[in-house]
Amino acid sequence: MDVVVFVVAAAIVLVGAVGVVLRGNPVHAALSLVMTLFGVAVLFVAEDAHFLAAVQVIVYAGAIVVLFLFVIMLLGVDRSEDLRVEPLKGQRPAAALAGLALLALVLVPILRGHKVITGVHSSSALLRDSSDDTNVVRLSRSLFSDYVFAFEVTSVLLVIAVIGAVLMARRPPKDTSS
Amino acid sequence: MLSVVWLIPALPLAGFVLILLFGRRLGEPRAGWLATATVTGSFVVSAGVFFDLLSRSADERQVVHTLFQWVPVGGLRVDLGFLADPLSITMALFVTGVGALIHLYAVGYMHGDANFSKFFLYMNLFAFSMLMLVLGDNLLVTFLGWEGVGTCSYFLIAFWFTRDTAARAAKKAFVTNRVGDWGFMIAMFLTWSAVGSLNYVDVLGKADSLSHSTATAIALLLFLGACGKSAQLPLYVWLPDAMEGPTPVSALIHAATMVTAGVYLMCRVNPILAEAKGALTVIAIVGAVTALFAATCAVAQNDIKRVLAYSTISQLGYMFLAVGSGAYVAAVFHMVTHAFFKALMFLGAGSVIHGTHDEQDMRRMGALRKLMPVTAVTFIIGWLAIAGVPPFAGFWSKDEILLHAWDKSPALWAIGLVTALLTAYYMSRQVFMVFYGDARWGDENRPHGEKPHESPWIMLTPLVVLAGLSIVGGGLNLPFTSSTKLLDRWLEPVFGDRLAVSSFGPGGKWALAILATLAGLAGIAVAYAVYLRKRVKAFEPEILARAWGVDDAYSAFVGGPGRRSFLAVEWFDRTIIDGAVNGAGAIAKGAGTGLRRLQTGYVRNYALGIAVGAVALLAWFISRGAW
Amino acid sequence: MMVAALHTTASWYLALGAVLFTIGTVGLLVRRNPLVMLMCVELMLNAVNLTFVALARHLNDVSGQTVVFFVLVVAAAEVVVGLGIIVAILRRKPGATADDIALMKG
Amino acid sequence: MDHSTLGFPILTVLVLLPAAGALVVALLPSARADLVRLIGVMFSVTAGALSVWLLGAYATGGDGGFQFVSKHLWIGALGVSWHLGVDGISLFLVVLSGILFPIALLGARPHQDEKAFTAWLLLLEAGIMGSFLSLDLFVFFVFFEIVLVPMYFLIGGWGYDKRVYAAVKFFLFTMAGSAFMLVGVLATVLLYRAHSGILTFDLVEIATKGDFATSTGRWLFLSFAVAFAVKVPLFPLHTWLPDAHTEAPTAGSVILAGVMLKLGTYGFLRFGLYLFPEAARWFAPTLVTLGVIGIVYGAICAAMQHDLKRLVAYSSVAHLGFIVMGTFAMTTQSMSGGVLQMINHGVTTGGLFLIVGMISERRHTREISQLKGIQKPAPIFAACFMVLALSSIGVPGLNGFVGEFLVLIGSFVTYRWWTVVAATGVILAALYLLWAYQRVFHGEPDEANAHFPEMTWSEGLVMLPLVGLIVFSGVFPKPMLDRIQPSVKQLIAHVEEKTGYHQPEVAAGGNP
Amino acid sequence: MILGVFKGPAIQWWALTPILVLLGGALVLMVGAVLRPKLFPRGAYAAFTCLIALATVTLGFFLWHDIGEHGARSLLGGALGFDRFSVFFTIAIASAVFLTALVADDYLRREDLDGCEVYALLLLTAVGGIVMASANDLIVLFLGLETLSIALYILAGSHARRLQSRESALKYFVLGGFSSAFFLYGVALTYGATGTTNLVKIQDFLQANVLLENGLLLAGLALMLVGLGFKVAAVPFHTWSPDVYEGAPSPVTGFMASAAKAAGFAGLLRVFVVCFATYASDWRPAVFVLAVLTLVVGAVLAVVQTNVKRMLAYSSISHAGFILVAVQAASPEGTAAALFYLLAYTFLVVGTFAVVTLVARRGDAAYSLDDFRGLGRRRPVLALVFALLLLSQAGVPLTSGFLAKFEVISAAVDRQSYALAIIAMLSAVIAAYLYLRITVSMFLADPADDNTAPISVPASAGFAIAIAAAFTIVAGVAPSVVLDAARHAVPILTATP
Fold it and tell me: What is the DSSP string of D2-63?
């Protein structure tokens, strides 16, 4: 069962990802991204990350991709990019080579089996145990104890994002020199 | 009197300092008088020291007088000290004596020169240096004098520095001498490393402990120095050119005193020479060959001073022949007599030049004896002396040299004899061309057409004195009995048993003397036939006038391969060494320019760089894995 | 039957993450549209998230999931700022691709 | 041993006084050139006077150890002390610096921006004094490096046409050399710490107590040697020198040749030999060979130069070759001669650069072919040049000879054939200098040179002390040798004790 | 029930004050400016920012002593390390903020960009940097890195009228996001290999276990090195920095080169040198290669530039190479050297870019070497101070730059990395050429004729430059205090007591 889920979801993820890369039209790319994000959400569920799966769909697919589409429309850059031409000589073969090498190098340790994951099993913040705490409870406990500082730092990030968006989007004052 | 031996060089030095400070204010002629007075004073002191020494027994005639420590470092102790012994005092006497006369002469000769006082400045400095050379009690003080006279020679040759020829000649003299000095220096180093001292007393006392090869090396290296200073083959080339200097300079430095320094040095280190028989032979051969070589050159010179210059080289060759034959006293004897007559002739030539308004070409002279009687008579005395006509001074000394040369090798004697003949020939040629024959000085080439005139008394006085000395100089060492060999006896403490003793009996000696005299007379006769009677066409080939082309060959070498090799080194420095430095800079810049191309400005290229870097790092780390 | 006998292991997920990460990387390298490049970064972050979640499950450790939460926030912030920048620049140079934005180089 | 003999830390004052002068000058208004000059001269003359006083107060007859030592902790964390001291080797270099700086300041005034010029020059003096006096590796390195900056600005700011190229080349070349030394210094100190447990940069302590493995010592020596060889400069690392000397303003050339090059030779003695005697001995044949090559090579290059200043610059390469040779021949005579030659070369070549500066000041050219017959309009000028040239040639009775002679005679007992070759340098020296003299001063002056102004009184006053020194130390070098010798002997004894080397008996004073 | 069981970690407010002050300052700025934009006099934003920065520095000194008395500890459930290392960086980064704000004040008004946002972002960037330097957890480190980076993306692009500024923001952003993804992937793999992201626990784990299969961990290390290498602009991850440095507003460039670089190295030191000390034999060769590349490429590329800002960007890369040499030493001495270097460089580079800011004049575009010609004549003091800062960067003694290099070389030599030490010094020689080129332009070249726009030195920027110069000299002549501080500031990974 889980194999089937994995295979199907993985297929969705990969097709979406490839779509992002290969669809010339940015709108199509964005939609392919949504596909991938959904696939990932499915895999999250399969991996006992229910809360994250929800957030993934809501925040990512819901908010972020919409933002993308919004900007595409705002700027009117939905023209298709001609993917047959590559202005930078050698970029594509080099990118392919680098990608392959990267993949190979990362897969080398990963594919050596589960023994490669040498980390100790958690002793305090278990994902599954005999108690019937939900995933959300466990997650929030972790979030507000070990990661409470990180949680607070994300607020700083968001403040910055706000300021940044304001600063970037604001039209510059009249240029006196031009 | 011995304790004031330092006064001998100090007086000219004082003269030098005074003229240096007040020369302009003193002006002409007081600067000249001052200079003459200081050298005369030195002569007087030398004489005093001489008599002091004379009053001592033979084995006490060697006194070292130290002024101060000069260069004391570790095992090297060199003092500024003087060695008063018969040899050095003999030298001091004739240096100061002849020097004083020439100074006096120069007061007249340099009359009117813009740099009158400067001339005497140099002259006094020269006298000082020469006396240091002679009186120094160690090799280094001698070297001080040695270089000092060379420097003064440089100054004085270039005295009329606006003439390019004079400037070139001066430089040539100095540099050529330096080649010899190189030998001198190495000899000093070798001496010190072998003996641990540079003092003559120590070095000469331990000379017999030197190994044969060391002694030979020292002797030959010192001889190299002597060759430079005394203008022997192959380093003679500077002396003819040095005639660019004022004539008193030629007389004093390039005839009477400085050039004999080499001979003096050889005599001084005779104990070392005694340990190096091979070196002696070399010296004898070089001396003899130089004598002959220079005599042949003199035959074809037309410049009145150049004839004398080659003659000087030739006569110096004789002296080295004597040294090489072990006849040190004969060398010294000839040195003294030569100083008399050669100084006389140079001064006479100067008088002629002075009288003919700076004419030096003998072809435009002639018949001057009537116009310049004193000059002519004294010059003729000098001629007879050098030609070896008895009883003039030259006869005695030359005869003695030839006598010992025979003992060394009959071949050397033969060369000496031929040289004697040539000497008589070319000197006669000179006398005939200058003082006899037709007057050639009034031709259209001479715009002034002024009549030559006799020189003033101040110039003639030294001529007369020197002429007198040239006549009686032979009396210093008459070979008749041992009691008449004054010089032999006087110098005995210096040379001791190292002095060669002639193997001839009285008969042999007479025979040789007559042969030599005949040779001299023959030379005169031939010259008479050629230049006065014009019976025979003059033999003056171009090759002899150019001194067998030796000088040209040197110039060709220096200007050709020498210069080219220097230029090659300079090129190497500029192109290879500096090029490497600039090249390193260029490589850095080139690398920068090349790497710049990777900085394309395209963000995707940059990302690719990061990805490649990540792959490389991953590859490295993965390869380090424990599998 | 063969399929039924199989069970997914963490390695499967990790491998999928690696592939996804690589696709994102390559995508960023070959796409010229800055917006799509930004999407490719999102792909990479998702790959990491997938990895974290798989590891969290394998290690039975919830903190792996907590981390993903933060990554989501970071991704959101990045997108906001990134889009702001892209908007700002494309307003000055409409229709520009990443390759057109290369005033500075060398 | 401390500075109690004088009651105040004279060495520290010698270093800091010029620096303070530079600061004061920098704070003056630049419009007051007269004030700038006055203050600048005052400071440099005071420092010079102090250095002469030091010379007087220096005790002779001791064991040649350091005197007027002052030692204070500077950077505790690094084990760095402000450790100054003077011995016979550095004494005269300090005095020379003290004398040459006022001369350079007085004798070669700049055309523009006198204030900055004076300030840089004073700063340079501080740096040089510090280099010669420091007995701490860190302090030495700091001063050794810092001198580059003022010199860089002096060359670049007040030099001739290619000044920027020359200044940059000088800076980078020297800095590249120092790069190795810095690594060497640190390695030395850290290895000493590893073996003794003490972190210190103290030269004396490391030299006397340090014990480096043979190959380590050689590497360390090499790292120092590169820096010093560049500074000296030793063939083939010399090509910064002709450019720097030629393009530098006169004062810069005077200081560069007079004292800065000695930082290299001094460094060899003070740091190379003292710290790594074994390695120094091992490298000695190489370094002597390079020195000899430098002697001949420098002379040949000098002979072929068209530019008078460049000629003098190359002559420095030759002269410094003698010093290096003397240093590594390792006999009492050769080393003492080397030290003496450092002073002599400073005086002589400094003087030559001054006078060449005067020529180019008058004629706006240094091309030998443009100059002719100057002796006629300016005999005293010519005489001055002649004395300097003769000193450089090494005519006995002048200073140049004594040093050269001692180097050669001392080297002869340990490096016979090298010395034979090196001695040819004296021939070549005569060749290039007299040839230059002939072309510049002899002959009939042409139109451009016929009115060459004679030396002025003030110029004469600047030259006078140099000429006086040249004659004095040529005739009576004993006072100098008496101070140099004990320190040299001590250094040789140090080498002998550490390596089992014995200098030949004849050099030490025994029987050959 | 759930709430009853849950107990959050204890919060040591005192130790967090620097972050809180900076954060509060930023918020006050934003809120105040939004509420009453016209109320504030000229320069009030800058003054306030300076005040906040000064307060942070002061707090830093108090905390330094606090740690001296009570020892290092870890805060908030092990998320933050509270040791002298973090305080050292707090002081350094806050100093950079202080100086940058002084420089920015006049700059922003000159360029018509005045507003509170830049200052607020400066303060927030500092928060990110301090978080990075204090992080005891890889995720916190990542968040600090992102805080820092995202704020800097914006700052780099904040000059609205210069397309270069926008371009630099875009490049920085794209590449920054790209490399953070690598970093994060590295964190993920490390998490898999060790079971935690907490540095203390990782250290304990690695000390207690010898991994038979360490591929995951090594891959994680490699990828984290990519991310941090990007942040410190190590070759080959440096490509962004010349372009970004050139395009960003000059005061921001100075800030980036100082604070951001310092934070990046803080991460590198804490993670690699301390936490992964057991794997030093694996990462040291990699860092060795990075160091060599960074040194040489930075120096060599700097030499061929004609744009002063780019020159300084490449020189900054070369400096990073030097600090990498110290990292490569992987010893307390190396860490101390890196800290000293970073502090010295912070002042140097902010001062340097302050001068560049002034010389760039209105329009922020006059960066070419020619624009510096004749500066020595027209603005002698400014030129002299600039020369001092440049020569210090070149490593001339009696300046902080020399001692920084000295310390680094010392650390390298101590680990017998002689070759690296020599390469570093030689590359310093190459780099010196570029500083000389600038001084040549200022002092030795004839001033350009058309270059008549006057250069004004406002008091605030002048003050900043003076501070930078003063620090450069003081730390060069009497460095004991700073040296001792750097030595005591070696990071310590301690679990919560």
Answer: -GGGTSS-HHHHHHHHHHHHHHHHHHS-TT-HHHHHHHHHHHHHHHHHHHHHHHHHSPPSS-
The DSSP 8-state label assigned to residue B455 in this structure reads P
Task: For residue C29, give the nearest of B599, B601, B611 by CB distance.
Answer: B611
Q: How open is the CA angle B233-B236-B241, to the nearest 5 degrees?
A: 155
DSSP string, A6-66: HHHHHHHHHHHHHHHHH-SSHHHHHHHHHHHHHHHHHHHHHTT-HHHHHHIIIIIIIIIHH
Chain D: partners with 3+ C-beta pairs within 8 Å: B, E
Structure tokens at D358: 């005067």
Token pair in block for residue A130: 């005999």
CA distance B589 to chain A (A): 25
The CB density around residue A58, as the number of other CB atoms within 10 Å, is: 12
Residues forming beta bridges with residue B83, ordered by sequence position: B64
> CB-based contact (8 Å) between A8 and chain C?
no
Residue numbers in D near B151 (CB within 8 A)? 390, 395
Are D333 and B76 within 8 A, CB to CB? yes
d(CA D149, CA C106): 30
Q: Which residues of D touch E422 (CB under 8 A)?
A: 179-180, 183
User: Which chains have 3+ CB pairs within 8 A of E?
Assistant: A, B, C, D
Using CA atoms, how far apart are residues E441 and E387, in angstroms rounded to an integer?
11
How high is the ipTM of this complex?
A: 0.92
Cβ(A38)–Cβ(A62) below 8 Å = no
Q: How far is CA B618 from CA B615, E12, E86, in A?
A: 5, 39, 30
Residue of C nearest to B597 (CA): C106
Distance CA C29, CA C27 (A): 5
Q: Of A64, A63, A45, which Cα lies nearest the Cα of A53?
A: A45
Element spanning B64, H or E: strand B63-73
SS3 B68: strand
Chains B and E share 3 or more Cβ pairs within 8 Å: yes
- In chain D (512 residues long), the average pLDDT of successive 10-residue segments reads 60 92 88 86 92 90 85 89 92 92 85 87 93 94 92 90 90 92 93 90 90 90 94 90 90 90 92 91 94 94 91 92 93 92 92 90 88 88 92 90 92 92 91 91 87 88 90 91 90 89 78 46
pTM of this prediction?
0.92
Which three-class secondary structure state does DSSP give residue B136? strand
Q: What is the DSSP letter of B12?
A: H
Contacts of D511 in chain B (CB under 8 A): 196
Spell out the residues 6+ positions from residue B447 whose beta carbon is closer than 8 angstroms to its own: none
Q: For residue B211, which phi and psi values (nearest 5 degrees)?
A: -70, 160
Cβ–Cβ below 8 Å for A3 and C8: yes
Which of D164, D183, D187 lies at the smallest CB-CB distance from E444? D164
- In sequence order, which ranges of B55-163 are alpha helices (DSSP H)? 86-109, 116-135, 139-157
CA distance C82 to chain E (A): 7
The token duo for B553 is 């060959």
Q: Among candidates E175, E159, E170, which has minimal Cα distance to E231?
A: E175
Q: Flag if B161 and D376 touch (Cβ within 8 Å).
A: yes
Residues of B in contact with E214 (CB under 8 A): 625-626
